[in-house]
Design brief:
By secondary structure, the chain is of the alpha/beta class. It folds into three domains: 7-144, Globin-like, CATH 1.10.490.10; 152-249, Translation factors (Elongation Factor Tu (Ef-tu), domain 3, Beta Barrel); 266-385, Nucleotide-binding domain of ferredoxin-NADP reductase (FNR) module (Rossmann fold, 3-Layer(aba) Sandwich). 41% of the residues lie in helices and 19% in strands. The radius of gyration is 22 Å and the shape is globular.
């Protein structure tokens, strides 16, 4: 991907990025947003405020330097980022701006250590990576038949409370035309224009099987934490969207697409709002392979925080080989296990012939991934959906 002359400088950057990566990315975002405030609409400003976006970019730059040329490591991550870029309308002309301020941040942070050859090597490395993204995204827009950032008006046909702080919204196109084809596990971006002029987009997994007529998204009200702000878009949706409201949304994207057509056994593990793509997958299996052997396990704080129980109950009535295993942190008298999810409590399954899908908080997925590997599940059978900016943190 880069020249032999540039490679030693990139390799030498690895320990530097490990030590100074967060300072570099913090400087990058600060300077770029100051010069181009219009770009804030393409970024999750909540993640900016909490620092997770800066940390994620630092991890991405570090991983790129450490694994440059290793397509086995970088390929899946690049594809995941491409899908996210497609969902928010990233265009080719954005890349020179990002490159200018990223290289500038390296120079500003490292000072005299940022030699001319080192900066030249990073310009070459960035340009090489940008070309990969631009080509992939150009193809992605063409395949979808859309222009970058295209939004479609969708009318809210139903709003249903699923659990504490979680509501599901059923959407239909205002123009009455069919919805584009999509797969369970994919997501759409919803755009919101706030009264103060801010424009923000957030991604929400489709939480029902696609039928070409309706989409459903499930939105958790994100309350402020000790180190994180409240979710601007999720709270706006909860506070303002009712039946009859119109939302603007993108074409569906995302590379996490569980195989719903296979007849092999499948295991789905989720926690919290990570249940949404799993419910879409389960509902599709109900339609196309209702006799398939499925283990569906979910972890929640308690029954009041367990979303989509209606969907699960409906699937149980129609799928004779569906086994549901639930874990609540709080003790329960309705058959749920108490405590964190423990795969040892799941029914046995043929590890070599069943795919396992995971979705939930990063800590949950890391713990389950490690437990599954220790239990002898082949890594090739493990698949996970990552919400938020932790794209590279989930590679180990």
């Amino acid at each position: 991907m880069i020249s032999a002359a540039a490679r030693p400088y990139i390799d030498a950057s690895v320990p530097v990025l490990r030590a100074h990566g967060l300072a570099i990315t913090t400087t990058f975002y600060r300077n770029m947003f100051a010069a181009h405030p219009e770009l804030t609409s393409l970024f999750n400003m909540g993640n900016q405020a909490s620092g997770t976006q800066q940390q994620s970019l630092a991890a991405a730059v570090f991983a790129y330097a450490a694994h440059i040329g290793n397509t086995d490591v970088l390929g899946p991550v690049i594809e995941r980022i491409v899908q996210k870029h497609l969902s928010i309308g990233i265009r080719a002309e954005h890349y020179p701006i990002v490159g200018q301020y990223l290289i500038g941040a390296i120079k500003e942070t490292l000072g005299d250590a940022a030699t001319v050859p080192l900066l030249a090597a990073w310009v070459e490395a960035y340009d090489s990576l940008a070309k990969v993204f631009i080509a992939a995204e150009k193809k992605g827009y063409a395949d979808a038949g859309i222009t970058p950032g295209a939004l479609r008006p969708l009318r809210v046909m139903q709003r249903r409370n699923e659990s504490a702080g979680v509501d599901a919204f059923t959407l239909e196109p205002v123009d009455g035309q069919p919805l584009p084809a999509c797969k369970p596990g994919q997501y759409i971006s919803v755009a919101v224009d706030f009264a103060d002029g801010r424009h923000q987009m957030r991604q929400y997994s489709l939480s029902d099987a696609p039928d070409g007529k309706q989409w459903r998204i499930t939105v958790k009200r994100e309350v402020a934490g000790a180190a994180t702000p409240s979710g601007a878009v999720s709270n706006w949706i909860h506070d303002h969207v009712v039946v009859g409201s119109t939302l603007l949304a993108t074409h569906p994207f995302g590379e996490f697409m569980p195989d719903t057509d296979s007849i092999e056994p499948v295991v789905m593990l989720s926690a919290g709002v990570g249940i949404t793509p799993m419910i879409a997958t389960l509902n599709q299996i109900v339609r196309v392979q209702p006799t398939r052997h499925v283990i569906f396990s979910h972890a929640a704080q308690d029954r009041q925080h367990h979303a989509h129980q209606v969907d699960i109950a409906a699937a149980q009535r129609l799928m004779p080989n569906l086994q549901v295993v639930t874990f609540y942190l709080a003790p329960s008298d309705d058959g749920a296990h108490t405590g964190l999810m423990n795969i040892a409590m799941l029914p046995d399954w043929p590890h070599a012939h069943a795919d396992v899908y995971l979705c939930g908080p990063t800590g949950f997925m890391k713990a389950q991934w490690q437990a599954l590997v220790l239990a002898g599940v082949p890594v090739t059978r493990l698949h996970r959906e990552v919400f938020g900016p932790d794209l590279l943190d989930m590679q180990d």
